[in-house]
Amino acid sequence: MPAIQTDGLTKRYGHDVYAVSDLSLTVEEGEVFGFLGPNGAGKSTTIDLLMDFVRPSSGSATVLGYDVQEEAGAVHERVGILPDGYSLYHRLSGRKHVEYAIALKESDDDPDDILERVGLDPDAAARPARTYSKGMSQRLALGMALVGDPDVLILDEPSSGLDPDGIRDIRELARSHADDGGTVFFSSHILSQVEAVCDRVGILSNGRLVAIDTIDGLRDAVGTGATIALVVDAAPSGVDLTDIPGVADVTVTDGVVSATCTEPSSKVEFVDRVRDGGSTVLDIETHEASLEDLFSAYTRPADGRLVVEVDQ
Amino acid sequence: MSWQVIAAKEFDDAVRSKLLWSLVAVVALVVGLTSLVPLLIPEFDASVLMGLGAATEFAAMLVPIVALVAAYLALAGERESGSIRLLLGLQPARGTVLVGKFVGRSGVVVAGIGLGVVIAGILAWAVYGELPLTAFVGILVLTGALGVAFVGIAIGISAATATRARAMTIGIAAYLGLALLWDLVPQGVHLVVLGGFPTGSVPGWYLLLEGLSPSGAYSALVTAVLSASDPAIPGAEALLGGPVPSYAQWWVFVLVLVAWTTVPLVFGYAVFRRADLN
Q1: What is the 3-state secondary structure (H, E, C) of chain A?
Q2: Where would you find the membrane-spanning parts of this chain (chain B) (predicted)?
Q3: What is the pLDDT of residues A117-131, one digit of tens each?
């Protein structure tokens, strides 16, 4: 049974503002799923829909087979969430927060164990939450998410406000949760924070899922592409640039001829062909694509320098 | 039971609020001092019950402030700050959350106001040298009930609004309309229907209209308690100059208080249940 499944999930505000649009995705049990996208792509809204904080305009979603709206109680019993944009109860201590979570989840966790797991020492836990730094707040909220040993852990931008140690702790925690058979839904706008830990990633842009693949799959897709851009005095004429093996996506604009080269050797061939067309090459720029480029390509389609296709 | 957990946490959280305790101190002070006011008026044959009656006039205006302040942010504040994401992440049933909030905040208000009234009662007892227990307990219970009614109103408002500012605006409007200015309603109707302000005895419907607000119902019930305890204090019959019609009996005002407690809660829940919390 999938840990999380959404089917045509859509959240519309007003008449035509789509926060999430026709999102269909499946996260299997036991995997760490990276949910990527720039700020405002609809990641938090998706999570809000899964948590029944907001209601879908159309479509549906299940968590561990339970409908997120009709069976929210059953869902929440099995889910721990570190939400984005939360705040703590300023007057209450960290320990009180964890005790509250334990009581609400009717779990038999020991608050001290939880606090220790997320790295909050007893002194800090005894202080009221208003004295907490962003990093401490994040650790406490993570602790509350871990209460009741949830099957599915939803982490919405968990690294925000954390120092590198904290970010590493989050990753280790996510990994060990999945190794124990749990599922982690890890939302982030920074690819490098999820690539080390995620089995698969989905990339969300403007409310739409634009890619879903394993990190290796994405890497393969990226590996096939380097861009080459030639600055020329005049556009080449009388030559066909598109039939060169290993060259794709040729564009000729005013003064720049560019293409994607899947074979390193094809770059030279490409340059020769452009010169055969009567152009004088004034400058050559090449660019090896990285995962970050891939992410940018998906999420900033206006920046058309890199076009990569990924098998879904 | 989750609502009990939420109620206990609300109590725990709210008792740490300095603002709330300052208000309770003000209530104790004002109610205590006003219970002594009849002593200052030489024409009055001042009794402790008269003193308590005077004190409840102020309680009818102050208790709603305490209750509204204690509860108007219960949900709207959590929505604005985002802590509701933690809460609903742990307990998604919004009705349970609402009930827990209502019970917890009511507990704080009843405890605080009860303490204030008891302090005022001790003061009155010390000065007048007596304190009829039944009447005092009646006033204690009624004052608590008035507080609970306004907690219901405040929670209803808080559940139906998404921001602090809006909850505060509606809360202030509710206070002005239901606690401070309501008396203008029966007076206005009297003016329109009978061509003048009431002098001497009033018609039965006047009594009913007066008691349709929570504070009005509270005052009507306090009058009933005091006049039952001491016939020298005028009750509804004396005000009407005749028998009390069934629609203005004391139990009608009990129902009014119950309605003001529950109807806003139900309305607030209806809005909150469907609300997108983001």
Answers
A1: CCCEEEEEEEEEECCCEEEEEEEEEEECCCCEEEEECCCCCCHHHHHHHHCCCCCCCEEEEEECCEECCCCHHHHHHHEEEECCCCCCCCCCEHHHHHHHHHHHCCCCCCHHHHHHHCCCCHHHHHCEHHHCCHHHHHHHHHHHHHCCCCCEEEEECCCCCCCHHHHHHHHHHHHHHHHCCCEEEEEECCHHHHHCCCCEEEEEECCEEEEEEEHHHHHHHHHCCEEEEEEECCCCCCCCCCCCCCEEEEEEECCEEEEEECCCCHHHHHHHHHHHCCCCEEEEEEEECCHHHHHHHHHCCCCCCCCCCCCC
A2: 20-41, 47-75, 108-128, 134-155, 167-185, 250-272
A3: 999 999 999 999 999
